[in-house]
Amino acid sequence: METDRKRGRRKLPPEEIRDTTIKFRVNEKELAHLNDLKNKAGIELGHLIRQELLRSEPRNKTLPKINNDALLELKKIGSNINQMAKILNSRNDTQTLDQWKLSINKISRFLSGLERISNEEQNQTR
Q1: Model confidence, pTM
Q2: 66 with 114: CB under 8 angstroms?
Q3: Model confidence pLDDT, tens digit, residues 54-88
Q4: Interior CA angle at 25 toward 23 and 28, to 5°?
Q5: Which one of 11, 20, 76, 85 has the fewest CB atoms closer than 10 angstroms to its CB?
Q6: Rg of the Cα trace of the chain?
């Protein structure tokens, strides 16, 4: 019995061929969880992992990078706040209160600058 129908798997275009292997380790509990997910989905484990990873977006870092000078300045500001709070708690002095307000304004400007730098860095990484 002759037929012109070809047998076997169809040929994939070059851009669809998966010829790179990624290996990673899991413990027994993680493997059991992956197998449960695989059984619920009704697909092979490799297909499940590929499907889940390729459709998700990576999480952005929550903290921006900060240079050492900015960190040192932030520590100084924190120390100044603590010293001023101690003074304010020990006496009621309007001159000290004015200094406190100036320091708060300085902190606000500094933090606004850090936020601007952080936003610029995040926009550059996108």
Answers
A1: 0.40
A2: yes
A3: 887 776 656 566 677 777 888 888 888 888 777 77
A4: 140
A5: 20
A6: 30
Q: How many residues does the chain have?
A: 126
CA–CA separation, 104 and 4 (whole Å) = 83
DSSP 12: P
Residue of 103, 97, 114 whose CA lies nearest to 80? 103
Tens of pLDDT, residues 21-43: 999 999 999 999 999 999 999 99
Q: Which of 54, 60, 52 is nearest to 124 (CA)?
A: 60
DSSP three-state, residue 58: coil
Q: How many whole angstroms from its chain centre is CA 31?
A: 25
Q: Which residue has the tokens 């309007």?
A: 94
Helix (H, G, I), strand (E, B) or coil at 65: coil
